[in-house]
TrEMBL record:
PPR repeats lie at residues 178-212, 213-247, 248-282, 283-317, 353-387, 388-422, 457-491, 492-526, 527-561, 562-596, 597-631, 632-666, 667-701, 702-736, 737-771, 772-806, 807-841. Residues 25-81 are annotated as: Disordered. Gene3D superfamilies: Tetratricopeptide repeat domain. This is Pentacotripeptide-repeat region of PRORP domain-containing protein. Belongs to the PPR family. P subfamily. Residues 28-42 have a biased composition (Low complexity). The lineage of its organism: Eukaryota, Viridiplantae, Streptophyta, Embryophyta, Tracheophyta. Keywords: Repeat. Pfam families: PPR, PPR_1, PPR_2.
Length: 866
């Protein structure tokens, strides 16, 4: 294959430098490389799937035949070897030239003298031999073999020098230049991983107007991309474009791979579109990379379009391509599209692999459909696909999250039967699941198993530690801490935070600070969570000043407060009755960049409500709305409850209406607060309407709602309705509490239904519900009003037997009852007994004893209406 020189003058200036003396026809001799040497054979493997292009640099094994051609029986060659023992470079070149028309003999001659004493192979000798071999179809492939061996050494000339020697020798000895020699040289540099030399060779060929085969450009690009030399690959491609070579499908594939390795899917996509626009015939491999780029962006619409185009071209997308797109859709939460692609994958006779199956299960789980995930799990097993460790980890974790720890443990047992060793992540998930399920024994057994087997880590201990600390079980937490240290595990900052939390919840702030100091001693830097827990502990103890001091300390050690911290301070100040201070602090926090949340204002509004400052609560509510925050259900519940307690039912009802107009659905707490307020105001019609409404929207009334309604019906003397609610509670399995029974018994005693009240009292005692002072007072008052003094006295005696001390109101009620019946002696005895117990009679009791029966009626009536 011929090519043109840029200018013949370039060789005239080079010749004197290369050949300074007519006696020598080579430059400085080079150290020879024996033919039996073992050059580096590590070269890039195939990146493109196109069989029309080489997947790696050409090596010796690519050529057929024995690398050493048979020795010639040419008598002239034999005579030449016998007559010349010096083997000078001049002599060797001249001898090679005599075999110019017989390349095999030339190669035989070269092989014969390579090991002879006195011969030093020079680059010019090699150049002459290369030109001779390139001239025959029978030997031109030996060019690549010789070049591979030559460039693998460390003493060869620079690539551009080699190029010039090849050109000079061709010019001087009248060889027809073949660009394959130069391309084989480029390939040889790639083959021995001399990428800088390869790039210099490429540049030299371009500068000398030597045609570079696209095949060998792609080989060089392949090597650069595979070795992550992306900048060099970019530079090479830019030079290709500068000489008008945009490449083929393989080039597109390689450059897109390069861009993806850089994490730049946008440029990969752009490159693909440009290649497509200029009419480059793109293959399936290029489309595969384009789809991968679209998924990485992600541009799932484009990924879907490209996948459709692949199908339209008659290609069958690979399993890898389907997997890539399905995983991309799942990552974006589009389970429906992922499932469609899974079905399409089946139509292409592609088997569902475990990666896709596991990801689909996780997609189901994230959508809250764990049952479908488990169904898919059973289906893949039926189809012969074996779940792996990741599959079990996903299902076990989500079963635990959804409260189905029993199924999680079944999966755990199944994976062990399959000889798949559970990871500590799986074990930790199960322990956490058992603890949340309050299955302490199962959690403990699994924990002990993990510790004994040696797989338990600090996170395993932290799971249990958090459970104990959150429940305020300080002793158990301390024992677990000691066990953790004994097992050689170093507590983490989370471990210390948990212990600090435990002591704070127990109200032992001294111990909490001791753990904090130990944390500092061990070189573990406290986090903003650490300080926030301590601050919250001090607020719970009512020590707001110490909490604020900790805040200042945290800021001084350059720990930035979080929104969690700011909210703790706001909420803490409202809990200690300093809501106005909290409001001022909020302004300062906002100036520091804090963005208040709904929860923040809820704390302030609730604080003002508790301080009976309704106007301030409404002002905070209005400010919240002005700041662009939408009040939530909690906000309205706080306001409704506050208005009801302050007897502002109209305001409460307005809040309820505003809440509904904003599309907020009341929760059971909001309904309960409003129903309770209406019942206290004896507005039972509206209360019943709300009761029906909460049931219609699917909420289940709780014990608090029922008790409010029962009290309300009792207060309006409608015990029939109250008893109906009692029956409804029993039918729905809602356990009655002391408050329920007290209200019912009180109402029945007022109606004079002593037998029915007695039955309810017996029912209550059969459920081991112990009457308190309020219940006893209600009983005594009702019995005394109905002149059942003996039964009333029995109540007092029962209290004495059970070690419960009656209060002043109980004695006063009994005294009033006996006085009303004219049993003054018993009334005085009870008075003395009352004094002996250290109880102080109130003014009403003395009025009864001194002024007579007129006061008794008023007293008993007052007790009954309480």
């Amino acid at each position: 294959m011929k090519f043109l020189f840029k200018s013949s003058s370039s060789f005239q200036t080079f010749l004197p430098r290369s050949f300074p003396s007519p006696k020598y026809l080579c430059s400085q001799p080079q150290t020879p490389l024996p033919l039996n040497s073992n050059p580096n054979t590590n070269f890039p493997e195939k990146i493109t799937s196109d069989s029309h292009f080489p997947s790696k640099p050409i090596s010796d094994s690519d050529f057929s035949g024995d690398p050493t051609l048979p020795k010639s029986e040419d008598p002239h060659l034999t005579s030449s070897l016998q007559q010349d023992g010096s083997l000078t470079v001049t002599h060797v070149i001249n001898t090679l030239l005599t075999h110019k028309e017989d390349p095999k003999s030339a190669l035989n001659y070269f092989n014969s003298i390579e090991y002879r004493r006195g011969f030093v192979r020079g680059v010019d000798v090699l150049c002459v031999l290369l030109h001779i071999l390139a001239g025959s179809p029978q030997t031109y492939k030996q060019v690549a073999r010789l070049l591979n061996r030559f460039v693998s050494g460390d003493s060869g000339p620079a690539p551009v020098v080699f190029l010039d020697h090849l050109i000079d020798s061709a010019k001087k000895f009248d060889f027809e230049l073949d660009s394959r020699v130069f391309n084989y040289l480029l390939n040889s540099y790639v083959r021995v991983d001399k990428f800088d030399d390869a790039l210099d060779c490429f540049d030299g060929m371009i500068e000398r107007n030597i045609e570079v085969s696209l095949r060998f450009m792609n080989i060089l690009l392949t090597a650069l991309v595979k070795r992550n030399l992306i900048d060099k690959a970019r530079e090479l491609y830019d030079k290709m474009v500068s000489i008008g070579v945009t490449g083929d499908s393989v080039t597109v594939h390689l450059m897109m791979r390069a861009f993806l390795k850089e994490g730049n899917p946008w440029e990969a996509e752009k490159f693909f579109k440009e290649a497509k626009a200029r009419g480059t015939e793109l293959d399936a491999a290029a489309y595969t990379i384009a789809i991968q780029a679209a998924c990485q962006k992600p541009d799932l619409f484009m990924a879907g379009e490209l996948l459709r185009e692949v199908r339209d071209r008659g290609w069958v997308p690979s399993e890898f391509t389907f997997t890539t797109v399905i995983l991309a859709f799942l990552k974006q939460g589009n389970l429906v599209k992922a499932l469609r692609l899974k079905d399409e994958m089946f139509t292409c006779w592609k088997r569902l692999n475990i990666v896709v199956a596991t990801s689909l299960m996780q997609g189901y789980c994230k959508k809250g459909d764990v049952d479908s995930a488990l169904e898919l799990f059973d289906k893949i097993k039926e189809d012969g696909l074996s779940p792996n460790k990741v599959t079990f980890a996903v299902l076990i974790e989500w079963c635990c999250r959804n409260g189905n720890v029993k199924k999680a443990y079944e999966l755990y047992t199944e994976m062990k039967l399959m000889y798949i060793q559970p990871t500590i992540f799986i074990v930790n998930s199960l322990i956490r699941g058992f603890l949340e399920d309050r299955s302490l024994k199962e959690a403990s057994d699994l924990f002990d198993e993990a510790v004994e087997s040696g797989i338990a880590n600090v996170f395993t201990f932290n799971v249990f530690l958090h459970h104990f600390c959150n429940d305020g079980k300080v002793n158990e937490a301390c024992s677990l801490w000691q066990r953790m240290v004994a097992n050689g595990l170093v507590p983490s900052y989370a471990s210390y935070n948990n212990m600090i939390l435990a002591h704070c919840k127990a109200g032992n702030m001294d111990m909490a600070h001791n753990v904090f100091l130990e944390m500092l001693k061990q070189g573990i830097k406290p986090t903003v969570t650490t300080y926030s827990i301590l601050m919250d502990g001090h607020f719970r103890k009512g020590d707001a000043d110490r909490a604020l001091d900790l805040f200042d300390e945290m800021v001084n050690v350059n720990i930035a407060p979080s929104d969690f911290t700011f909210n703790i301070i706001i909420n803490g100040l409202t809990k200690v009755g300093r809501t106005s201070v909290a409001k001022e602090m909020l302004k300062k926090f906002v100036d520091k960049g804090f963005v208040p949340m709904c929860m923040t204002y809820n704390s302030i509004i609730n604080g003002f409500i508790k301080e009976d400052s309704i106007n301030s609560a409404l002002a905070a509510y209005r400010e919240m709305c002005e700041d662009g925050l939408s009040p939530d259900v909690v906000t309205y519940t706080i306001l409704i409850d506050g208005f009801c307690k302050s007897n502002n039912i109209d305001l409460a009802w307005k809040m309820y209406s505003k809440m509904k107009s904003r599309g907020l659905q009341l929760d059971i707490l909001a309904f309960g607060a409003l129903i309770n307020g209406l019942c206290k105001n004896r507005n039972m019609d509206r209360a019943c309407e709300l009761f029906s409404e909460l049931q219609q929207i699917g909420l289940s009334p709780n014990i608090s709602v029922y008790n409010s309604l029962i009290r309300g019906f009792r207060n309006v003397n409608n015990m029939e309705a109250a008893l109906d609610l009692h029956k409804k509670m029993i039918n729905e399995g809602i356990p009655l509490d002391l408050q329920t029974y007290t209200s019912l018994i009180d109402g029945l005693l007022r109606d004079g239904k002593l037998l029915l009240a007695s039955d309810l009292y017996s029912e209550m005692r059969a459920k081991d519900i112990v009457p308190d002072e309020i219940t006893c007072t209600v009983l005594l008052n009702g019995l005394c009003n109905k002149r059942q003094l003996e039964n009333a006295q029995n109540i007092l005696e029962e209290m004495n037997r059970k070690g419960s001390t009656p209060n002043s109101l109980i004695y006063s009620t009994l005294i009033a009852g006996h006085f009303k019946e004219g049993k003054l002696e018993e009334a005085l005895r009870l008075h003395n007994e009352m004094l002996d117990r250290g109880l102080v009679p109130d003014d009403t009791t003395y009025d009864i004893l001194v002024n007579g029966q007129a006061k008794v009626g008023d007293f008993l009536s007052g007790v009954s209406s309480a």
